[in-house]
Write the structure tokens for this entry.
Amino acid sequence: MDARGHRCPTPTLRLRRALVNAPHGSVVVLLADDPMARIDVPHFAAETGHVLLDCRQEGALLRFSVRKTASLGDGDHAVPPD
């Protein structure tokens, strides 16, 4: 999921959409360049019950790997892509 060039909360919202559409146990990789994503993405994963497997910074690029481990609630259904 490439969210480079977008400011928070957009990277986290795109991650959420990808996780909703992913099968249980899948790993979604998010690329972001907004420094706030370093705070928002781990918080989102913790709040929704998903597992942040990795967070790496490569220059200005942040790369997050998140495993889907929980339902996203009543809205846990396919969300059409952008």
Summary: The beta strands are 27-32, 51-58, 61-67.
